Amino acid sequence: MPISSVDTYRTMLAAPSGLVHSNKTALTTPALRLVSHFVYAGTTTGVAPSTAVVPTNLTAGSLGQSNAPGGTEQFLTAAQVDSMASGTTLQAGFMILFDRLSHQGGLVANVATTQTTNLPTAALTRYTSGAGVWAFVEVYSLIGTTATSFTASYTNQAGTSGRTSAAQLIGAVGWREQGRLLPLALQSGDSGVRSVESVTLAATTGTAGNIGVVLAKPLLILPIAAAGDPFLRTYLNGGLGGGIPKIEDNACLFWAHFTTSGTTQLVQTTQWFGTT
Amino acid sequence: MREELPVAAIASVSDLVNRLTGGSSGTPETLWFYKNNRINGTADGAPIAGRMMSFWRYDGIPGGGTAPTSAAIPDNTTAGGLLQADPGGGRQKWIVGGSTFGIAGGALVVYDRLLHHGNASGTVTTAQTVGGTLTRNTGGVGNQIWVEVYSQIGATGTTITASYTNQEGTSGRTTPAVSIGGTGLRESSRIIPLPLAAGDTGVQAVASVTLTATTGTAGAFGVTIARPLVVLQAALPSFGSWQSFLDGMQIPEVPTDACLALAYHPLTTTAPEQFGCVAMVEA
């Protein structure tokens, strides 16, 4: 059920139903590019998928929060992010929390033919219409230095198949690194993705690497306005961008990171959950 | 913390929190967007620092729109907009927060694209008809006239005026001449806002636009009647913020059928790649 009042929200903060600590020990982010935490080593280290599956809160790489008790709803009520390493500060930038809804891997970045290996993506079990669901190509292992582009064939939020994403950059510095998230630019008129059926690169990047498709729902933005910005972020102090997101049962939560400068850093997050 | 809200429909911050989490038929909708500077997969020109630009056709999430031709009324189903749902049950819809971040600093304007047109030529020096009839904010107060370039016009600088009907319903009003054409004022996706005549505060209709002289290249440009709703700040690369009523932002209504669209004030010449969200509730 919804949060009835500010007082109820404050009570949820003071007595969270769940508190999840997580860290990534050496998160490498190129400057001004979105990178997924999922496969980076830390308290929970994801594994690059192969076959198309639906990840859950029990999947390695997920924050691993518990589900809400029966008959209740769960919300993420607060968060904190910092660098654990002594004498270091967190790089400025922002982080987006996603629910990882479906993923696969085993695609390569050195062929220019249509790839359907381990596709289509597994059917959504959360946000099943696809409305507001983003699709990415995620780089699981480094691909080549040659800049090119890719498109994908997908089914949109209305269930219409055969939609084609607009050409998006892939390969070369900033577009090839492990963890890199390359958003699918949707066909005109579309607002979400229900499934992805194939991926096609315009040319080889020069290295096969390992890339895959991820379907994910954005939930929250954390602005990190200045290096070393570890305050407790709540809706009331403006620290949670996007509101107070409801967390679906079995959600596979993971962070994506975007830094002003290219860096490798140790990132610690704490997430407060509350149920009503 | 502010306790009173500027709209009567949302009674208090507690009411806002309740609606934001699905109570009281708040039907919360947070629209997440991503825009790069490509149009149908092809890179658009680089921004000009300080020159307003349109994200209307830019690839991303949701997908980009297309250049209009004759005057038309875009709505919440028109490709290029954020495609939000209409409010239900006789309720109104309100923006209660927003955020934007990108690879370059700038400010993002979320506006209701009330009318657009796009088949004007950069070489015609007679009055070019715009026309069309607004269906939202028809009184005109707060509406702005933007010239929007869809295909690069010429390198010769000249000026442009528009003949319009103001917020009082007085027709034949003329905007002061502003520059158009030449570097910074001719590029694809450029927006050139037209100032209103002295004493005017809005626009009900635009009858025509007139170039003082040819820019040298026909290209294609048009007129957009826009009603800005909220400005989201991202002052430095990757530095954004979450802005909400609690920080002092007002709570603008999103009218039924509104075509929520994005315009951008770049601080640099870096091609934008922009992320963000707009949070809305019903009351």
Task: Describe the SSE topology.
The complex is a heterodimer of chains A (276) and B (283).
Chain A: H1 6-14, E1 18-29, E2 35-36, E3 74-83, E4 93-103, E5 114-115, E6 134-141, E7 148-156, E8 163-164, E9 168-170, E10 181-183, E11 193-201, E12 210-224, E13 233-234, E14 246-247, E15 253-259, E16 263-275
Antiparallel strand pairs in A: 1-16, 2-15, 3-13, 3-14, 3-16, 4-12, 4-15, 5-11, 6-10, 6-12, 7-8, 7-9, 7-11
Chain B: H1 13-20, E1 29-35, E2 38-39, E3 42-43, E4 53-54, E5 60-61, E6 93-102, E7 106-116, E8 128-129, E9 144-151, E10 158-166, E11 173-174, E12 178-180, E13 191-194, E14 203-211, E15 220-234, E16 241-244, E17 253-254, E18 260-266, E19 274-282
Beta-strand share of residues of chain A = 35-45%
The string of secondary-structure elements of chain B, in order, is HEEEEEEEEEEEEEEEEEEE
Helical content class of chain B = under 10%
- What kind of oligomer do you see? heterodimer
Mean pLDDT of chain B: 94
Helix content of chain A: under 10%
Identify the most extensive interface between protein chains. Answer: A-B, 54 and 54 residues
| SSE order of chain A | HEEEEEEEEEEEEEEEE
| Gyration radius from CA atoms of chain A, angstroms | 18 Å
**What overall form of chain A do the CA principal axes indicate?**
globular
- Residue ranges of chain B: pLDDT <50 for 5 or more in a row? none
**SS field, number of helical segments of chain A:** 1
Structural summary, described in words:
The complex is a heterodimer of chains A (276) and B (283). Chain A is mostly beta strands. Chain A contains one helix and 16 strands. Chain A has one helix at 6-14, and strands at residues 18-29, 35-36, 74-83, 93-103, 114-115, 134-141, 148-156, 163-164, 168-170, 181-183, 193-201, 210-224, 233-234, 246-247, 253-259, 263-275. Chain A has a six-stranded antiparallel beta sheet with strand order 2-15-4-12-6-10, with no helix packed on it. In chain A, strands 1, 3, 13, 14 and 16 form a five-stranded antiparallel beta sheet that branches. In chain A, a hairpin with a 6-residue loop joins strand 7 (148-156) and strand 8 (163-164). The longest helix of chain A has 9 residues, at 6-14. The termini of chain A are close together. Chain B is built from one helix and 19 strands. Chain B is globular, with a radius of gyration of 19 Å. In chain B, a hairpin with a 6-residue loop joins strand 10 and strand 11 (173-174). In chain B, strands 1, 5, 6, 16, 17 and 19 form a six-stranded antiparallel beta sheet that branches. Chain B has a six-stranded antiparallel beta sheet with strand order 4-18-7-15-9-13, with no helix packed on it. In chain B, strands 8, 10, 11, 12 and 14 form a five-stranded antiparallel beta sheet that branches. Chain B has one helix at residues 13-20, and strands at residues 29-35, 38-39, 42-43, 53-54, 60-61, 93-102, 106-116, 128-129, 144-151, 158-166, 173-174, 178-180, 191-194, 203-211, 220-234, 241-244, 253-254, 260-266, 274-282.
